[in-house]
Amino acid sequence: MTFLQRLDSDESFRKEQFPCLQDDRVFLAHAAIATVPKVVVDAMAEYNRASSTGELDYSELLIDRMNQARKSAAGIIGANAQEIALLGPTSLGLSLVANGIDFEPGDEVICYQDDYPANVYPWMDLERSHQTKTVFLKPDRPGEITPDLVADAISERTRLIALASCHFLTGYRIDVDSIGRRIRETSDRALFCLDAIQTVGAYPTTVEHVDFLSADSHKWMLGPMSAGIFYVSEKHLENLRPALLGAFNVKSTNFITRDRVEFENGARRYEPGVLNVQGILGMETAIKLLNETVGIDAVSSRLNELKELLVRRLLERDFEILGEASGANSSAITSVTHPDRDLIGDLYRKLLEKNVVTSFRPDRSGTPIIRFSHHFYNNEKDLDRVFEAIERAI
What we know:
Blueprint: H1 3-9, H2 11-17, E1 26-27, H3 38-53, H4 58-77, E2 84-85, H5 90-100, E3 108-111, H6 121-124, H7 126-130, E4 133-136, H8 147-153, E5 158-164, H9 176-186, E6 191-195, E7 212-216, E8 228-232, H10 277-294, H11 296-315, E9 320-322, E10 333-337, H12 341-353, E11 356-357, E12 359-360, E13 370-373, H13 380-393
């Protein structure tokens, strides 16, 4: 019996492995800050225990265990371990890209203004610091960034395209590989940076056509906050200048300062100081659960099945679905509004009163939106609970 099959057949086991389900809670806010499973709690608790008793071998922990964590992180995105820095949050990795590329005045950075702010502000600020130009994509519908839209925006001055793998509100999941290929075909100098926090852990994510990727673990990876993955393609390790320097990313034998700056090998050159070891151990455990115990293909298949059920039942009750309701560009993010705009805010609060956790996210125009974001351990009974609460509320 697989782990997923046991979750489906044994409710007590499901609640044991995912404590957020206790007290009859239905948690559907993984696109915000996910709750962590028991195995992650246990891994972090063991670190705390050993730290409190003085049992930790810090040499083994900071070298061997962190190298293993890099391998696990690399495995979930199809990278090599030397291309991984263990850094969170997502905004840190994005800012390292913004401050590590040698931009020239007049260089253009393509991004999407209605993306999550962490993937907009670093590029906007380059106008001040490097006299670049920010080019905002204008999709026909919110979040729908297509290969053609990106290719049409590229000019001879384009230096970087910075996109999210999935829009945080509409749930539109971009075709990363197709966009990456189009960038290569269209420009010989444009780089591709990906904010992948809304897909890593939920859907297969590969970096074959990506230059840089950043993703914290606190959403779909089911890990803690401020533990994450920062990927730099091997071909850019010598070109992306480390913007932060310290005793850990500059070679300093026995922590004795040398007479010149020489960076560590691989992506470790972007890790300036002591890592968030406790969080990284939790993240690694979560990655192994998703990538090895369950399998990302099984995770994404389950997410799609639940998405179909959720969307169908929402449409039956006159909710309006933002973004793709199905297909290759859909995701486990389902954001809804309603013809009765006043209903949404009240419904969010009433769902919370019934122990159904979602997210309330108004858009740029102020339209109130409820965002559902389920994960693989949720099931149809959880959705039944959601609609029982909805029926009582509307």
